[in-house]
Design a protein that fits this description.
Elements: H1 29-62, H2 67-81, H3 85-99, E1 107-110, E2 113-116, E3 119-122, E4 124-125, H4 129-159, H5 165-183, E5 190-191, E6 194-196, E7 199-201, E8 204-206, H6 208-234, H7 238-246, H8 251-271
Antiparallel strand pairs: 1-2, 2-3, 3-8, 4-5, 6-7
Length: 273
C-alpha cells in the first residue's frame, strides 16, 4: 500500500537542476517555509505559461469545425476537470517513479538525454559571458519588437499601408540574440550528464517531484482555461465572424484579428483567478 509514497520520508529534491536553496529535515520550520515559497514561485512561473498556451489551444480546438478535433478536446476537458488534482499529482509521480527504469538502465532517447526513476537529465551550455549578452539582446529585441508593432499599427491607421511586422519581430527577437551569440565567440560547449556511481553528474535534471507537480497542475488548470477561452470566443457576436468572412479574411486571420481581440475582454477577468 505504501508503494509510491516513499518520497514523504526523503529529503527535499524539487525543481529543475539543483534546488534554489538546499533543505534538509533537520532545518527549521521558517527555513522550510522559505523553501516552499521559492518552489511555489518556480512552479507558478513555468506552469502559468504552459497552462495558458495549452488551455488556449484546447479551447480553440473545441470550437473547431473538425469533428474529431472538437471531440478530442471535449473529452480531455470533461475527464480532466472531474478528476481531483491531488489524484492527478500522484498519478504523474507514479508514472516516473514506477514506470521508468533505474539509473543504470536509464533510457537514452536522444544524445545526452537520460530518463530514469530519479528524473530526466539533459545537457546545457557551459557557463560563458556570451550567454549573458545573449539574454540582454533578447530583452532588447522583445522591447524593440513591441515598439515596432505599435509603430506599424499607428502607421497603418494613419496611411492605410500595412507593414511586415512578422519579419521585423523575428529579426528583433531572434536576430539580435544571434548577433550577440556570434559576437561573443559562438560558444557551443555543452555540460553533458555522465553516470558517476549511483547517479548522473553534470547537465540539468528535472526531478520526479517537479515533473509530477508541474504536469499535474498544468494539465488540470489547462482544462479550466480552455473553457474560459471557449466561452470568451462564444461571447463574441457571430456577426463579427460573418463580417470578416465577407471581407475575404481566411479563418486564421478572422480568429486572430477579429474574434480573439474582442474575446479577451471576457476571457481576462476570469482567467486571472
Amino acid at each position: 500500500i505504501a508503494t509510491g509514497f516513499d518520497f514523504l520520508s526523503r529529503e527535499a529534491s524539487f525543481g529543475i537542476g539543483e534546488s534554489l536553496i538546499d533543505y534538509h529535515p533537520r532545518d527549521s520550520y521558517g527555513y522550510a517555509f522559505v523553501v516552499g515559497i521559492l518552489n511555489t514561485l518556480k512552479v507558478a512561473v513555468i506552469g502559468i505559461v504552459l497552462a495558458t498556451v495549452i488551455g488556449t489551444l484546447v479551447g480553440i480546438a473545441r470550437l473547431s469545425s473538425n469533428w474529431l478535433v472538437a471531440k478530442l478536446a471535449s473529452v480531455y476537458i470533461e475527464i480532466v476537470r472531474n478528476i481531483p488534482p491531488l489524484l492527478q499529482l500522484f498519478f504523474w509521480y507514479a508514472v516516473v517513479t514506477e514506470s521508468m527504469p533505474p539509473v543504470r538502465q536509464a533510457l537514452n532517447p536522444l544524445p545526452g538525454v537520460f530518463v530514469t526513476q530519479r528524473g530526466v537529465w539533459f545537457p546545457v551550455p557551459v557557463a560563458d559571458p556570451a550567454w549573458a549578452w545573449v539574454g540582454v539582446a533578447l530583452l532588447v529585441g522583445i522591447v524593440a519588437a513591441v515598439a515596432v508593432r505599435r509603430w506599424a499599427a499607428a502607421r497603418q491607421a494613419r496611411t492605410g499601408q500595412p507593414f511586415p511586422t512578422g519579419w521585423a519581430t523575428l529579426g528583433c527577437v531572434a536576430g539580435l540574440p544571434f548577433l550577440a551569440f556570434l559576437a561573443g565567440g559562438a560558444p557551443t560547449e555543452l555540460d553533458m550528464p555522465q553516470l558517476a556511481g549511483f547517479n548522473f553528474r553534470g547537465g540539468v535534471a528535472i526531478s520526479p517531484e517537479f515533473f509530477a507537480i508541474l504536469m499535474g497542475l498544468v494539465i488540470y488548470t489547462a482544462a479550466f482555461i480552455a473553457e474560459v477561452v471557449r466561452n470568451g470566443i462564444l461571447a463574441v457576436s457571430w456577426g463579427q465572424t460573418e463580417a470578416a468572412r465577407a471581407l475575404g479574411l481566411p479563418g486564421g486571420l478572422t480568429l486572430r484579428l477579429v474574434v480573439l481581440p474582442q474575446a479577451l475582454r471576457v476571457i481576462v477577468p476570469p482567467l486571472t483567478s
